[in-house]
Every structure is written in structure tokens, then in C-alpha cells.
Amino acid sequence: MTELNSRVGRRSFLKIGALAGVFGATGSLASDETIRQASEAELKEAHAGSKKVKTICTHCSVGCGVIAEVKDGVWIRQEAAHDHPISKGGHCCKGADMIDKYRATNRLRKPIEKVGGKWQVTDWDNAMTKIAAKLTQLRNDHGPDSVMLLGSAKVSNEQSYYIRKFAAFFGTNNIDHQARI
Fold it and tell me: N or C: which end of the chain has fewer CB within 10 A?
């Protein structure tokens, strides 16, 4: 077994130290006007009569802070929550796009099923009853290992726990994460 040599030589250390010193010294010469306070007009809402609602991004399980601007029950604008302990005012590109995903016209908002070759809207009770019946049929006909459950980066730790418990009660160990597919 070989040992990794991660030592830094004296010359490399001095070069890195000098470079860090230069960056530190020049940082103090930066203009104080680079960052300024927002004006009163900039602090006002983009849409009169709207209200800001603190919430979290639901794209993944990190839970970054979002301030949603809502008017008449419609999400019209968003910004990052600068006081949020997780994201500290940042957004990934997926979180910045959450409003567009929410507004998408092709987003399913109700359960649908294919009947006679055509998709039609159904109610939640009917959809859940059919799914439960199909899972029971699969387990009875082919055994519990005929089903595999997938977790996701979108679910929280608690939801992951529920998925794992459901798999155990169903009688299978076939569970994985979508990132490995």
C-alpha cells in the first residue's frame, strides 16, 4: 500500500502565502460604492397590493429559503431569502426556476388515467384505490420483490423514512435512489 505524499514544499508555501497577502492587501483598495443600500423605490413591491410570503424551495430536500410574492392567491414573483439559515440568500438554477415550474401549463394538478386509449381526470380516492389494488395484485401474483421503490433528492429525510418503512411492510428490500439510475 502506498502512502500519499500531500506535503507542500517550502517554496510552494511561500508562493501561496505571498499570493494570499497580495489578494488581502488589494481587497482593501476596492471601492466602497461597489455595494450600496437599496433605494426606497427598489424596496417597494414589484406589484402593488401583493404580499410577501416566506417559504422554502421544494425542488430538492435542502430546503433553501424563498420569499414568494403573492397577489390574489397567485404566485407572481420570487426572490431568495437572505436571512435563511440554509441558503443564506442564494439559489441554485433549479430553485430560481421554481416559479416557472409551478406555473407550467403541462404540470399535472390532478390524477389522470388512461381509459379507452384516452387520458381523463379522475379523483384522488379512485386513483389511490387503483394503485393499492395493483400493488396488492403484483405482490400476490409475483411476490413482494416484483416491486421496486425509488427515493428522490426531492423528498425530505422524513419522507425517505416513510418510503423505507412502506417497502419493509410491503415485504421487499428493493429500494434505491433516483440519482443512481
Answer: N
Could you give the angle at the alpha carbon of 143 between the alpha carbons of 163 and 155, nearest 5°?
Answer: 10
Tell me if the pTM is above 0.70.
no
75: which residues sit within 8 A by CB, 6+ positions away? 68, 69, 99, 102, 103
Positive or negative CA dihedral for 70, 74, 78, 81? Answer: positive
> Please, what are the domains in the chain?
47-103 (2.20.25.90), 112-180 (3.40.50.740)
Q: What is the rounded CA–CA span in Å between residue 99 and residue 41?
A: 24
Q: What is the pLDDT along the chain (181 residues), one digit of tens a residue?
A: 445 556 777 787 777 787 777 766 666 666 556 566 666 665 665 677 888 888 888 777 788 888 888 888 888 888 888 888 888 888 888 888 888 877 788 888 899 999 999 999 999 999 999 999 999 999 999 999 999 998 887 777 788 899 999 999 999 999 988 777 6
In angstroms, what CA-CA distances link 67 with 30, 125, 140, 156, 169?
31, 33, 48, 20, 39
Report how far apart the first and last C-alpha atoms of the chain are (Å, whole number): 33
Query: Can you give the C-alpha Rg of the chain in angstroms?
Result: 26
